Amino acid sequence: MAKSLLIISRQAPWAGPSAREALDIALAGGAFDLPLGMLFLDDGVFQLAPAQQPAQLQQKNLAANLQALPMFGVEALFADARSLLERGLDAEHLTLDVEVLDDAALAALIDRFDQVVTL
Amino acid sequence: MSTLSLDNRDIALDKDGFLVDLKDWSKPVAQALAEREGLELTPEHWEVLELLRQFYQEFELSPATRPLIKYTALKLGPDKGNSLHLNRLFNGTPAKLAAKLAGLPKPTNCI
Amino acid sequence: MSTLHVISHSPFGDNRLSSCLRLLGSNDGLLLCGDAVYALQPGSEPLKALEHANLGARLFALEEDLQARGISSDAARAIDYPAFVQLSLDHDKVNSWL
């Protein structure tokens, strides 16, 4: 059995390469059938904000790419409740179907995976 | 770099034969690309190519083999969404070859 | 399962440390290295947060990074690189906050 990996994505979508890199790890791992999870934390939850128009910045549409995660077999998708709350994001209006977790559930989530990477 | 000549028009291809400009794609272009690969496009091929273009429109990336199979199964049913069917249609490399013929970028997560 | 969390960014102007403290499990350890050792600056807000988190013997800092920055603290156990390696092995996994 392959080791499970939790990817914690905690950077805003257009600030630098981190958000894209986290997604690339997830897509590559998913394509190879690895058991993966992805957690959006801190500014990472801005990746899930509605009505983004990355074409204005000549960027690829990260939000559209994120939608492909379930197709790549990455269905364990989570967001941190407090990060959403602090940033005024409504969990009901995110661009991705995620499970929203409180602090205690975050610790349990990390515990459940064999490996974790945060970027 | 190479070019595909079609109706007195030169269409740019990258070194692996993928369209440089995705807007160049049309059904005759797909047909011409398939000929270069020695492939005769049947209705079964076309429905997969249509599906790939739909995938790209939805997710803005090219699928690797596994998501291609999953998406095909979702849209066309498990009889067509399986590796046997897709491998048979696209010479054993469905993600790469079908993406090429559908005018999508080369899949990045594909070996 | 225990996780060793490794932070190397300054806690000032970034919330890696506060997020990490939020999701730290009861068996998890925290190692501060690089600019993250500024979190141990006496009288600072991050030090208060660390003391509040009450990690006891689960809080570590790389000795050379402390010394280089002129910081000494009783809050964390100062360790060298061999001890860092041992610490990584003592935990089930390592989570680097890149």
TrEMBL record, chain A:
NCBIfam families: PRK00211.1, sulf_tusC_dsrF. GO terms for molecular function: transferase activity. The keyword NADP does not apply. Its EC number is 2.8.1.-. Keywords: Transferase. It is an enzyme of class 2 (transferase). This is Sulfurtransferase complex subunit TusC.
Automatic annotation (TrEMBL), chain B:
It holds the Pfam family DsrC. It is an enzyme of class 2 (transferase). One of its GO terms (molecular function) is sulfur carrier activity. Keywords: Cytoplasm, Transferase. GO terms for biological process: tRNA wobble position uridine thiolation. The active site is at 110 (cysteine persulfide intermediate). Its main location: cytoplasm. The keyword Chaperone does not apply. InterPro entries: DsrC-like_C, DsrC-like_dom_sf, DsrC-like_N, DsrC/TusE. It comes from the Bacteria. One of its GO terms (cellular component) is cytoplasm. Its EC number is 2.8.1.-. It is found in: Cytoplasm. Part of a sulfur-relay system. Belongs to the dsrC/tusE family. This is Sulfurtransferase. It comes from Pseudomonas putida (Arthrobacter siderocapsulatus).
Automatic annotation (TrEMBL), chain C:
It comes from the Bacteria. Transmembrane segments: none annotated. One of its GO terms (cellular component) is sulfurtransferase complex. SUPFAM superfamilies: DsrEFH-like. InterPro entries: DsrEFH-like, Sulphur_relay_TusB/DsrH. GO terms for biological process: tRNA wobble position uridine thiolation. PANTHER family: PROTEIN TUSB (PTHR37526). This is tRNA 2-thiouridine synthesizing protein B. It comes from Pseudomonas putida (Arthrobacter siderocapsulatus).
